[in-house]
Amino acid sequence: MATMNAAPPEMSLKTSNGKAKVSEQPAVVIQESAYHTAMTQFDHAVQFLNLDPGLSQLLKTCKRELTVSFPVKMDNGEIRIFTGYRVHHNTARGPSKGGIRYNLSVSLDEVRALAMWMTWKCAVVNIPYGGAKGGVICDPKKLSLHELEGLTRRYTTEIAPLISPEGDIPAPDMGTNPQIMAWMMDTYSMHRGYSVPAIVTGKPINIGGSAGRLEATGHGVMYTVREAFKTYGWKFDGATVAVQGFGNVGSITAITAYEMGCKVIALSDIEGGLYNPNGIDVPKLRQYRKEHGTIMGFSEADPITNADLIAMPCDCLIPAAMEDQLNRSNASTVRARMVAEGANGPTTPDADSIMNGKGIIVIPDILCNAGGVVVSYFEWVQDMQQLFWEEDDVNHRLERIMVRSFRDVYEMSQQMNIDLRTAALVLAIGRVAESTKTRGLYP
Ligand code: NAD
Hints:
The protein has about 450 residues and is of the alpha/beta class. It contains 14 helices and 16 strands.
């Protein structure tokens, strides 16, 4: 068992008492390591593909791994040594893409698993990227803004041999945010002697970020859910939705669901949950949270626990907080007809089997939350062309990709009589295998 802190992938960085505000998340016990989950999922899916064992082994293995140890001068004058990683899982389909995580739980195995999921995520939505991930073992909440900047700039320099706009493009993940991307972009650019905006995505808009990037994951989740309802012949208008997590992904997902005409009957964050059988006015709740710093105490809903939220009878449950939220101890309590994974890895393999057994449809993370990387891809394209798009254009293109990708996965699941997660993996692994075969084995 490992203990893990989660922090927001993208949020504005403000100082309070000289400390950098990056994440306010508590520890949670992870029952399955991300690496174990990724390997179990791969081994299961690969049985449905008639792959040469050597090719299968190649796809299961990370291509390139860099471990760096580097010093940072702390505000009190001390020198502290930090350890970080950058891992490329696979680049058969294009440059590698994946976020940078700042967290005490970061390990080489965790980064390997996350890099592998990035390969499958990019392949399932058919964007021309491979998968990568990076991270630094640190607690960003305990660093001052100055220390965080120093750590980021030095880490960027250390991993510079692996990153480039043509080869490997980082982005934010847990514990990092647009400001950290700005420092990475600036550091890389200083070494080149000119500005290289396409070196990272998830940047602030005033230095080459994309309109719609911050909202992209939540929008993508709801485009996918709406398409799924249509496909299964379920009524979307007025559908009851419960969302776990009210951060970047959860809050945008909930607001989008509300705006699309769903009834958001339950919501939660780390402090607890809210329930209103007639539907929560989500924009009003967001305003309340802005004013009070919490969702608790909102008068137009009753308080509930996170366990109540997981067990809420509803049309669609959307875990949008963190890993391991649906596990062997609570999966049997789920009473939703559909689970749409806004978070990465919220469902363990045990929970998957339990929910499949109950006939619950699970839209897997590598499909459902891919909106973030899709708009990161748009950001990179805009940076390379120095030509920027309107937000409407970004959203329409995103919607087309999410709808098409859901249909691809659904068709695969029907053809092979398999669940959506296995279908998404079969589709993704199959695409990467095909690209690998087309390119051939060098030399
Ligand atoms: P965030 O930090 O902005 O929000 C996390 C939310 O979850 C917060 O509201 C927090 O209070 C809540 N939370 C934490 N632990 C909880 C618990 N035990 N029970 C209930 N609520 C809890 O993070 P985010 O950007 O919204 O990311 C959430 C998930 O989505 C992560 O798994 C992340 O990797 C994944 N994801 C994010 C993006 C993106 O673009 N932001 C893209 C793909 C996947």
